Input
Amino acid sequence: STYDIAIRGGQVATSFGVTRCDIGIKDGRIAAIAESITDAAQVIDAGGLLVLPGGVDSHCHIEETSRGGYTMSDGEPQITVNEESFVTASTSAFAGGTTSVVCFIPQWKGFGVWERYVDARKRGETGMLDFAFHQIISDPTDVVMKQEVPKLVAEGVRSLKVFLTYEPLHLGDAEYIKVLLAAREHGCLVTVHCENFDAIGWRTRALLDAGMTAPKYHAWSRPRVVEREATHRAIALAELVDQPIQVFHVSCEDAAEEIARAQARGVKVWGETCPQYVTLTAADMDRAGFEGAKFMCSPAPRDTAEHARIWEMIRRGTLDIVSSDHCGFSYEGDKGKGSAGRDASFEKIPNGIPGLAARLPIIFSEGVSKGRISIEKFVELTSTNPARLMGLYPKKGAIQPGADADLVLWDPAKKVTITNALMQHAIDYTPYEGLEVTGWPISTIRRGEVVMRDGKVQAEPGTGRFLPRGPYDMVKPRGITPDGFGA
Ligand code: DUC
Ligand code: ZN
Ligand code: ZN
Ligand code: ZN
Output
């Protein structure tokens, strides 16, 4: 037969529209799209279902090693490995309709990055998901920026990630500018965690001095203004240097407005948000006992009025990517939320929540099913735009001849109550437990192989491929600086 697989009878949904057609797959790629394709070794019936490009999650923390990290306390650095392995993350991603991720290579302060890349690459290749990397820069020494970064770029690592908060990850302005300049020289995107380290530090000490230590004070330690300030600064310095950036996990309109203003000036800045910023609230961190720790992530969840403003910023296009920022810490256990004790003050509780599997269902349900966005917009936010911005398009994020056959068969009417078991991750809870969604993945196909069907994931560990990224236009400098100097 002409094709290995024919997907028949579905409504094919891309960023361009929704059309009734069949898809022919050959050698792991999409080979044909036509009204009727029958000449295939295997036929998959997609009647009544949407056929979407596989989800691309451009921001997740998987099997990341750290030496000190995602808390505001600066104790002895300890080397730990993130609980979510590439195998468990792949299972969770496939369960939720995601087929590719961009995750992180760490940099431990005082160390280089090449060895960490070699280690992360090996880890990535044990999984089933296709993966690319952002290189975290926490210590931009000349050796790292002038010798190691060019080597990484040659390997296909095309983005540098910086934190403006967290001890020991945060960069000061001079260090951030160094990273921007290196990225500009080598054709990389810079992705930025925007919160003001010193402001959070001052707030944290003041809260602790006042005995305000419960998980809910995490939100008090980092109000919206600290996110807005860092977002403004990150953009201003990127504009000065003429280096494209993406602002990670925008949680509030205040920060999004900074992005919108810069975009209106023509600055190459993009904004990402996450499901938690349209579902969770600061009140969730005020749950009885230590339960609030389950919702602790940074930036902190805001309130329901803010959720509506985030949707508006999505509709305006200011925020054009929804990633999960999957960064799971179990509730129990010595790597978990309670690792510093059940009475630990908030600054000792690791920041981050799991969300790989929940991302598509939440955005489809809250977005499409509730009439806030179109199906096309959903595909853009969760697959096409992340693929474009990360330089993976049209291999990923597209349904067109030549693209990888990464597809999700999606039942737009299926009602599901989210439970932790459905997430199929290594984390012992989900912050979305009990959330009712309409719309659910029925089957996930990765490079022409059915890797999930009716919730059952079947894929061979070690089949996930590294996605090297070449130069691409979106991250080219504009050739414009505020006063012409350095352009
Ligand atoms: N935010 C989190 O919540 N966790 C890890 C990193 C981050 O920026
Ligand atoms: Zn520091
Ligand atoms: Zn972050
Ligand atoms: Zn993150």
Summary: The first strand starts at residue 3 and ends at 8.
